[in-house]
Specification:
Layout: H1 3-28, E1 34-39, E2 46-54, E3 59-71, E4 89-101, E5 108-119, E6 125-136, H2 142-156, H3 163-174, E7 176-177, E8 182-183, E9 187-194, H4 198-224, H5 231-250, H6 253-260, H7 265-268, H8 289-297
Antiparallel strand pairs: 1-2, 2-3, 3-4, 4-5, 5-6, 6-9, 7-8
Helix pairs in contact: 1-4, 2-4
Amino acid sequence: MTTSTDEEVREFLRNLQDQICSTLERTDGKALFTEDTWTRHNDDDGGGRTRILCQGALFEQAGVNFSHVRGDRLPSEATAHRPTLAGCKYEAMGVSLVIHPLNPYVPTAHMNVRFFKASTGEKDTTWWFGGGFDLTPYYGFEEDAVHWHRTAREALRPFGEDLYPRMKKWCDEYFVLKHRGEQRGIGGLFFDDFNEGGFENAFGVTRSIGEHFLTAYLPIVKRRCATPYGTNEREFQRYRRGRYVEFNLVYDRGTLFGLQSGGRTESILMSLPPEVSWRYNWQPTPGSAEEALYLQFLRPRNWLEDES
């Protein structure tokens, strides 16, 4: 790895943040992102820029964060598959985002792409990419799920036909609330500790995933954003957002890495929704659209089984 390859990744990530934020602003048509630039502990430890959009016409809250940090001891959450690297010096950079829409018929979306380096000696460095994107609907629509997964497959197709089913399965297995035996949403792509095919190939996979996020998400936003809704739908949205909070605080490796590494709390927890609720032992009404979410969407499915 060289300084030039590091800078290539950094430039891509910063440009990706710029592109996503400007596109979301145009799509929303009302609210703008505010930017908060920060340093971690001192200039040598790195920092980032957090951008938040609140109370928009379409997006109740959207956070898009770029960070580039360094540290002396790599936290265990970053080394699940590489335990020998725990405690090594590291450098990490990435873009992460979560979009919480106002209309309950528009799903919440999450995406992140990241790059890690760990020093195992004076001249020995281990590197890998990770990330993905996933969708969390409150009301399920098969055409939306098919579009989301079709775009995910197209993002990976140039790099091999086996990548989409592998990363789709990994996503299904990762975004599970184990204490409830429940999927967080309809999945998408997830990958970590990825350096297959060398730097150019692994970076290409990561770049394609980041660049396909808006292609996957915005058609769904535009299709559902004008759907009428009332108090019942908003209450269900807030209730289901509680599941999102539970996953992020209990299981999410990015959240745990940020907190373990002494990261900036406001930026780490930007993923949490602005309004959320919990109800004791709530159950959906039989035959309702809310029950259909549980029965038809919150389980692993091959959404592209009818396509070659």
